[in-house]
């Protein structure tokens, strides 16, 4: 299979997604946040709920752009271990308490989804045929796998009874996924819930399907079709997937916390639509100047993720005496001193998040100038 040229639009898409992540994860005050910058409480889909599936979709597209995917499988395993390990380091810092550390997490899920998707991508690749015929067959096999994963997950969640309860329970603590998480991870779960985890075991299977949808998009963009046809095809497929997810939501509601099957198709479709727009504007129209900052963020996405997470934890765990004579975190002191006086609470909170992004961008810009990239 011929390796396609690097897609600038994909780097920019990744950078825009990373920028969104930094903004939604770092408000100055969680009590004052614009609703689109918050996750849906349980079911539903806000713009914030698009960020994680966009990560996985992008990882799927990247499978088709890397020679390593079809090369040495040891590299796939090594990369997955590194990403998973970074997630565990972020979970352990600063207490390093292995007895209660959360095992599931964002990077951990990305690692598992990448590992499973990369090996499935290799396994179902056609052995012979013309490049475009191979891509079509390859894409169809990935599509069947994605359908199988999402239908299978829906059937399990809807019809397998929870011990001591009934089948088809979607409540946070009563659904089958939460029961399995408690059985597997015990106390190593998300500290805010303690009885379920948004990156739990069962919901990782449909998350793999999200990654496979990105792989299908990548195969299409690497075909010999004209640029315009690629853009329109990706846009049409995205709209169709969103419609499928919306219709499925009538029996299996859209929700990130359970990574429901309807959520896979709805958000995967949204990712395809967004990538189609970036592709049309950047790679086809050639309007690139505006995109350079986001390209920088996208090229060093792992560094940005780690710096953002560890930086926030560091500021939260360093203390200073506040104006009321009580110890407060550096983060709180910076927010109260530098941002609260500038605007009303909700806008001061947003300004703090934007300032986080600016500081991190400056760090990544300096790294980019020196050709320093954190690669797994």
What does this protein look like?
This protein has 376 residues and is an all-alpha fold. The longest helix is centred in the middle third of the chain and has 29 residues, at 131-159. The chain contains 13 helices and two strands, in the order αααααααααααββαα. The chain has a domain at 36-296. The model has no long low-confidence stretch (mean pLDDT 92).
How do the SSEs run, as a string of H and E? HHHHHHHHHHHEEHH
Q: Write down the Rg.
A: 21 Å
Average pLDDT score: 92
| Proportion in β-strands | under 5%
Overall geometry: globular
Write the layout of secondary structure elements.
Layout: H1 8-25, H2 51-63, H3 73-92, H4 106-123, H5 131-159, H6 176-185, H7 204-221, H8 227-248, H9 261-284, H10 292-299, H11 301-317, E1 319-321, E2 327-329, H12 330-339, H13 345-369
Helix pairs in contact: 1-2, 1-9, 1-10, 1-11, 1-13, 2-4, 2-7, 2-9, 3-4, 4-7, 5-7, 7-9, 8-9, 10-13, 11-13
Gist?
The protein is 62% helix and 2% strand. It has 13 helices and 2 strands.
Notable traits:
376 residues, mainly alpha, two-stranded antiparallel sheet, 13 helices, globular
């Amino acid at each position: 299979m011929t390796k396609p040229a690097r897609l600038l639009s994909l780097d920019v898409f990744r950078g825009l997604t990373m920028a969104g992540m930094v903004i939604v994860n770092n408000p100055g005050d969680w009590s004052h946040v614009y609703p689109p910058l918050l996750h849906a409480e349980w079911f539903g889909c806000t713009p914030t709920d698009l960020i994680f599936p966009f990560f996985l979709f992008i990882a799927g597209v990247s499978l088709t752009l890397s020679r390593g995917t079809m090369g040495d499988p040891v590299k796939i395993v090594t990369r997955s271990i590194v990403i998973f390990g970074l997630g565990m380091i972020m979970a352990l810092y600063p207490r390093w308490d292995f007895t209660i550390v959360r095992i599931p997490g964002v990077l951990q899920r990305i690692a598992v989804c990448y590992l499973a998707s990369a090996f499935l991508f290799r396994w179902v690749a056609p052995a012979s045929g013309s490049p475009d015929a191979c891509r079509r067959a390859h894409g169809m096999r990935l599509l069947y796998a994605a359908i199988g994963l999402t239908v299978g997950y829906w059937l399990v969640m809807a019809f397998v009874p929870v011990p001591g309860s009934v089948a088809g329970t979607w409540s946070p603590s009563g659904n089958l996924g939460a029961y399995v998480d408690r059985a597997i991870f015990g106390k190593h779960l998300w500290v805010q819930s303690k009885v379920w985890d948004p990156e739990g075991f069962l919901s990782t299977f449909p998350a793999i399907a999200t990654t496979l949808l990105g792989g299908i998009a990548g195969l299409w963009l690497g075909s010999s079709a004209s640029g315009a046809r690629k853009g329109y095809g990706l846009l049409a497929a995205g709209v169709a997937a969103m419609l499928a997810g919306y219709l499925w939501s009538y029996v299996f509601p859209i929700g990130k916390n359970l990574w429901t099957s309807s959520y896979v198709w709805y958000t995967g479709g949204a990712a395809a639509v967004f990538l189609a727009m970036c592709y049309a504007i950047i790679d086809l129209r050639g309007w690139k100047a505006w995109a350079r900052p986001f390209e920088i963020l996208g090229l060093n996405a792992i560094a940005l993720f780690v710096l953002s997470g560890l930086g926030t934890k560091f500021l939260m765990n360093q203390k200073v005496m506040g104006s009321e004579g009580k110890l407060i975190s550096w983060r709180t002191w910076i927010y109260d001193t530098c941002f609260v006086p500038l605007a009303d609470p909700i806008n001061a909170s947003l300004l703090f998040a934007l300032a986080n992004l600016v500081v991190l961008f400056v760090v990544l810009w300096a790294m980019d100038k020196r050709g320093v990239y954190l690669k797994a």
